[in-house]
Amino acid sequence: MSGGHFGYSYNNIDDVALEIAEVIYKNKQNKEFSKKTIAEFNEAIRALRVASVFVQRIDWLLSDDDGEESFHERLKQDLSEIK
Q: What string of H, E and C letters represents the secondary structure of 51-82?
């Protein structure tokens, strides 16, 4: 079974990123936060996505779903897909 070593905690990281994205979306209408703050929120989303990828890839490696070679290949691929 894929993953599970960390209890699929990378899903929680993804959820936080989505919640921040919702705040950004709502801010387009109510302008509660400055552009500078929204830029930092966007940077946080990117950092969370990077963290999520690392946790998932390490999770799969420690759970013996990936070997070291596939860990490195998938990590590189997944990180390259983050904008």
A: HHHHHHHHHHHHCCCCCHHHHHHHHHHHHHCC
Single-letter amino acid, residue 47:
A
Distance, in Å, from the CA atom of 18 to the CA atom of 32, rounded to the nearest integer, reads: 18
Instruction: Specify the pTM.
Output: 0.86
Helix axes 35-62, 10-30, angle to 10 degrees: 170
Phi, psi (deg, nearest 5) at residue 73: -65, -50
pLDDT-flagged residues of the chain (< 70): 1-3
